[in-house]
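Hmm, what's this shape?
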Amino acid sequence: MTDHPSLQPYADAWTHSIEAVSELVMPLVEGEWNRATPCPGWSVRDVVSHIIGMECEMLGDPRPIHSLPRDLFHVKDELSRRIEVQVDVRRCHTAPEMTSELEYTIIRRSRQLRNEKRDPSKMVMSPLGVEMTLENALRMRAFDVWVHEQDLRRALGKPGNLDSPGALVARDVLLERLPKVVAKDAGAPPNSAVVFDVSGPVEFMRTVRVDGEGRGTVDASVSLGPALTMAMDWEVYFRLACGRVRPAAVRDIIKTEGDQELADAVLAHFAVTP
């Protein structure tokens, strides 16, 4: 247990997901580490390297001194370059090296979380190089590890944990970003509403309301006569929101009622993760 109850749900979600990651990769033979994942340019090894690297940064370990190759097509900006360093530095590691470092990192981070005494509001440097509160940093680690657990499950053909504690953290993180998608990025008209009806393992209905000045908010109340209603499965929702699938690939299985031009604009801007 941490000293602060507000941190415990995120610590629990992180623990559940990272232990699932460990269980998934522990029995893999060398060749399976090279399987492609839904993350552009990343293999199973790369996803696990990313998880290890981010947790090492949360532990305060120094960042590797490493020059990236010039031919990494998926590295397009400073943020992706920062993230890629922890990945590329481990591309030569063997399967035993990967699993042993993962297990050691889990032990260290679990101990850190059990002994965490800092106030949740304390500002800390996140692995992405920006300051945020300790609570938000831990929340984002729970979110990130769950999403990458799903990347690994898809690559390895082992679905599961779509309704785990990490999935609920992911739902809340993604819903917070929905008003910007609808109101600013997709340009929904003022004084309109867009309803999202999500079914499956994580089920919810949310309405994004755009006020007269074009600002968006999200709530769980029912909207009468929305400009657009979009219905989809939870797995489709989070894969779209996390940039794991292109809208065109799932457009036929998303049910839309109302403004179809707005629906296309929302889907075009649905991805909200780096």
Remarks:
- Residues 210 and 230 are 16 Å apart (CA to CA).
- Residues 177-268 form a domain with the Nonspecific Lipid-transfer Protein; Chain A fold (CATH 3.30.1050.10).
- The chain has a mean pLDDT of 96.
